[in-house]
Structure formats: structure tokens, C-alpha cells
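Revision sheet: C-alpha cells.
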Amino acid sequence: MDISQLEVFLAVAREGGFSRAADKLYRTQSAVSQAIRKLESEIGESLFDRSSRDGRLTDAGHVLQEYAERLLNLRENAREALAELRELQKGKLVVGANEFTALYLLRVLAEFRRLHPAIRIVVQRSLGSQIPDDVRRHNCEFGVLTYDPQDAELASAVVYSDELIFVVPPQHPLARESRVSIRQLGAESFVAHIVSSPYREKVIQAFNKYKTPLHMGVELPTLQAIKRFVAMGNGVAFLHRNLRLIYRKSAALSHAGRAFLKIAESVAHAHGGRYRFDRER
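Predicted:
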């Protein structure tokens, strides 16, 4: 049996006859009769007492009527629940983050909460190294990272840029200094990020402005590689961290998830500064 058959059956039961049910459903009486005969054949029971003129139900008909009403009510409840999801009147948003990256979320979550108070928000504490797996396994819809996971299954958007910091090995003489002049940096060998960025250009411009040589003897592709290379005693570096929102590339985002991305983008446009929204893949 299918839903359309049950709708015809209930119409006959409620209207007290095949003719009135046909009028209610805008169908011919023969079409209604055929639908009922097919339903009776499938379940192996007669549903109406054909000797009566008021569409009186048999015992089997009374039993089916109760379940048919439940099924149609469930369908309507499902439609209403889906509409509530579309209209962001219910649902849940789960984001994976660690202690540091969760701080970025506060402004975005506050705006999300203001606009969509009915959505439950869960920020799930996780190690940064585990967050890509959590997103892939559907443990959370979004993750916030300080690095690019380089994962073909994940999409990424840079949403926040941290401040520029000067990195030296622990044993370096400048490691003990609270302030360093740009003149002092002219004697250092820098490990640079090979990818061009506004921060790299600002550093180059600053050295040019103060007529200080900038020695970039090594260029590496990732910030993690730069940090490790410097920690081994191979020069110094300027670094800045980008925070990224990651999410599954192939999976459709929930209605709450799509709203979250829109709000992250609107926060970046409204506040600027370190807030950004740059989709990378």
C-alpha cells in the first residue's frame, strides 16, 4: 500500500461513501472504487461493507483507519519539521574547535544566536590534529583550524588572521629580548613563506622604508615547516596564523550550516580587521 491509496481510503471512510469521496478528491467514482479494490487486494481484506450505502467500515477497515490516520499525521509532522529546519526554527549546529580557535567563534556565534535563537549550538572541544577526521566522520559539521589540512575531501575558508609574530630558536640571542629594532633584523637570515601574501609584502616594504637589508635565504611552503626549520636553528621568521573553517566538500550543508557560513561572511564584512572570509577550495 502507498500513501495515495490510504488518502483515498480515509476520504471514503470520512465522507461515508464512494461518490462523496470522489467529489472531495476531484476524481471519478470509478477511480476511487478501483483504488479501494487494489488496496483490498494488497492487504487481503475487505475494508467496506458493500451492502451498506454509507461506506460502513468492516472490522479490518476500522483497524486500517487508525493506522492510516497515524501515517498521514506522521507525514504532515515530517513536512512541518522539514519546514522548520528550512526556516531555521529548529536544528543543531556542531563545530569542532580547541581552546584557542574557539575564541574566534564567539563573535560569529553571538550573531548566529541573535538571528537564529531556536538553533542549538554545540562547540565540541577537540585537538586541532583530530578535527579534520571529526568533520569527515560527521562528528561535527564545521571545524576551526590554524593550518590548512590539505585534504581533498574538505573545503576551506580563511576566516581570521592572527597578528604577525617574530619567531627565533630558543637559543638565539634575540629570544631573550622584549623589543627588537629593525636594524638588528638586518643581520638575520629569514626563513620565508613561499606563498605571496599581504603580510609578506608589508614586511618587505618595512625593510625598504628603513633601508635595512632583508635576507631571505630559504623559502618553504607551509608555516609548520617554517616553524620546525627555525626551531632547528636555521634562521628566524615572521609568521602569522590564519584560522580556517573547514567542512565536507561533497556533503550538502544543513540549513543551519549554510546560515552559519553566511553569518561568518557577514561578520567579516561588518567588522573587517582580522576578520576575513576567503574561500580557498
